[in-house]
Design goal:
The structure is a homodimer. Chain A is of the alpha+beta class and about 160 residues long. Helix content of chain A is about 45%, strand content about 20%.
Chain lengths: ~160, ~160
DNA sequence: TTTGTTGCAAATCGTTTGCAAGCTA
DNA sequence: TAGCTTGCAAACGATTTGCAACAAA
């Protein structure tokens, strides 16, 4: 990608997103990967999203754009960003994956409404603590964890029935 | 399935498994479903397993048997048993599902070794408590949850490196 | 130029489904 | 017998991959 295009993209993004894209660019260079138009466009879109998304949803975002991006490329970029540690993959029990970007987004767990799919994030230091303990008690060295609570949100908890 | 066959299966199973199969049979009848040879064989096998398994693994168990069972049937039975509340489905981040039977098997969470796949079960009432609280605080009515801790077990935590 | 990247379509892989033949009740 | 089940193969849906054309360094 030539410098003009790259700057064109960078100029219209907010500072926070810009920094994250910078981090991504550096990762690409470090790995001997190339900084392409599609990679920057997808990264920009992802860092601008402040909720969970799917590969399909991301693809959707580019549907009516002048810059269309193929499904294969979307998946390939998602994969790179996960390796780069910029993106986290989630399994919410569906048969497709959810993603969310990590930078400026501290660790948290999820509560998912099984009716409408609404996702709420939360953290409880005490739970984190206890997990750490449980792993240690069982001789494990924690590398990560995923805690998903399933239930029905206010709007969908029919109190009657 | 005729009574003889059914008894033949029942007679060689341990009491606990027998009771669980009984529960399954009752569920089938209640739902107007039929008690078939394959359903009993698969149920018996499942209730005899005391660890997590996959559809593929279960199928494997019948590979060299006189009573072969098709992949489609395996999946159909798994689905029924999940609906019956006798089997729990798990998503351990792999692209296939894990199952474990529930009867005589209280709720618990999992610690999974990312190197060897070893799965350890644990429960911490305090964590359960805190989750309940977190959901309530966010206006959710909990219907279930899944807590998976990923890490490396003693044998695979290379202390160096 | 050299080497990595893209888009396309075909391939995978776990899981599901249509359908004719076979059981259960 | 009537109605559910089974096995088989084909269908699915998300994700991956081979390959020729193309862009970045």
């Amino acid at each position: 990608m030539n410098r003009e295009k790259q700057e064109a993209i960078l100029n219209k993004t907010e500072p926070a997103v810009r920094m994250e894209m910078q981090t991504f660019s550096e990762y690409l260079q470090k790995e001997g990967l190339k900084i392409t138009n599609q990679r920057m466009l997808v990264a920009e879109r992802i860092f601008s999203l402040h909720n969970h998304f799917t590969a399909e949803g991301l693809l959707e975002e580019f549907k009516d754009q002048r810059d269309q991006i193929s499904k294969a490329t979307i998946y390939r970029i998602l994969s790179i960003m996960v390796s780069a540690g910029l993106l986290q993959e989630h399994n919410f029990g569906k048969d497709y994956k959810y993603y969310e970007h990590i930078i400026g987004h501290k660790h948290h767990d999820h509560i998912i409404c099984t009716v409408c799919g609404k996702i709420v994030e939360f953290v409880d230091e005490r739970i984190e603590q206890l997990q750490e303990q449980a792993a240690k008690d069982n001789g494990f060295k924690i590398t990560g964890h995923s805690l998903n609570i399933y239930g029905t949100c206010i709007e969908h908890s029919s109190s009657g029935r």
